[in-house]
Amino acid sequence: MINGYDFPYITYFTQTDIREENIFTGSEGNNFRYRLLREDGKLKASVWYEDICFEKATAVTDEFFELTADGLVKAIEWLNSQKK
Question: How many alpha carbons lie under 13 Å from residue 39 in its C-beta half-sphere?
Fold first, then answer.
């Protein structure tokens, strides 16, 4: 189970230079990968089920959340719900 202690605070995603994005990635087991970043003023969570990097994944599922501490909690809950 992914828990909030594994993730940075929401400020990791909100207090960045406009030209740079802080991306947080992780994995659990052999075939569950996830990625979080700020996109268009929201928190974008992505998951894929291949043992490869995001850039080479062929089937990625995305979901957007508010760019707030509550949005981060909801993103973590969503990530947990996506595990197969």
Answer: 12
**What type of residue is 46?**
S
- Both structure tokens of 16: 């960045």
Q: What is the pTM of this model?
A: 0.89
Residues in CB range of 31: below 8 A, 6 or more apart: 49, 50, 51, 84
Q: Take residue 1 and report the two structure tokens written for it.
A: 């189970």
Whole-angstrom distance, CA of residue 67 vs CA of residue 78:
15
3-state SS assignment for residue 58: coil
Q: How far apart are CA 33 and CA 17, in angstroms?
A: 26
Tell me what pLDDT residue 26 has.
93
Decide if pLDDT at 79 tops 80. yes
**Residue 30 has what pLDDT?**
85
